[in-house]
Amino acid sequence: MPTYIMLSTLTDEGAKTVKQHPDRIKEVNQEIEGMGVKVTAQYAVLGQYDFVNIVEAKDNETIARVSAELASRGSIKIQTLAAIPIADFIASLKR
After folding, report:
1. How confident is residue 28, by pLDDT bands cut at 50, 70 and 90?
2. Lowest CB count within 10 Å: 11, 39, 40, 47, which one?
3. CATH number for the domain including 56?
């Protein structure tokens, strides 16, 4: 399955929710897995973003739908990037 990187920033409301209910992070992971996206790694980070998530989805349409669903809740802002394994990238340059 294709790999995607989801960079997310909490809104004020999202930060309040995470502070009061930290397990909500894992609950959201389960919700998105029910929508067809598997979380393979997740990190809380310092800097411009609050979380970096490495996820897999069957196609761009699936990840776009999940990104839109999460963003529509108003608790996070998301930037989603398609990730190409470096071996595949190098192979594409040799064609």
Report:
1. very high
2. 47
3. 3.30.70.920
